[in-house]
Amino acid sequence: MITGSCLCGQVSYDIAGPVGEIVHCHCQTCRKAHGAAFSSVAAVADENFVLKGQELLNQYESSPGKQRYFCRCCGTQIYAKREGTAHVILRLGSLDDDPQADEKNHIWVAQKAPWYQINNELPQCLEFE
């Protein structure tokens, strides 16, 4: 079992299955939403994602068909969800445990923060791949 939670601890989750490959997103929306150079994410199947404290989540449609869910008390980004998908996009900064997943790549490198240098050998995609 892999667990995670928000900063204040009022929203938490359990993952009862595998976490997908890790993707580091450098798009402007992720940078602004997380207040960081990039956001590390991975897919988790809906049936393996058990959320507690859901009533404390707010949501924001950051692009058409994509909702971002975050704790309304502390602001921690927990996950995102695209319409018509069978998985959540887990925000890995909210994990309490090792996801036991491999890194895949960097995406939206065309929108990367100019003050940040990618210093690893992972593939880099100019946009979403």
Could you outline the blueprint of secondary structure elements for this entry?
Layout: E1 2-5, E2 12-15, E3 22-25, H1 28-34, E4 39-45, E5 49-52, E6 57-63, E7 66-71, E8 77-82, E9 87-91, E10 103-107
Parallel strand pairs: 3-10
Antiparallel strand pairs: 1-2, 2-5, 3-4, 4-9, 6-7, 7-8, 8-9
List the helices and strands in order.
EEEHEEEEEEE
Mean pLDDT across all amino acids? 96
The biggest sheet, with number of strands, parallel, antiparallel or mixed sense and barrel status, is:
7 strands, mixed
The N- and C-terminal alpha carbons lie at a distance of 29 Å
How many helices? The count is 1
Order of strands across the biggest sheet?
A: 6-7-8-9-4-3-10
Rg, Cα atoms, Å: 14 Å
The low-confidence runs, each spanning 5 or more residues with pLDDT under 50, are none
Give the beta-strand count: 10
Structural class label: mainly beta
Q: Report the β-strand fraction as a percent range.
A: 35-45%
Overall spatial form: globular
What share of residues is helical? under 10%
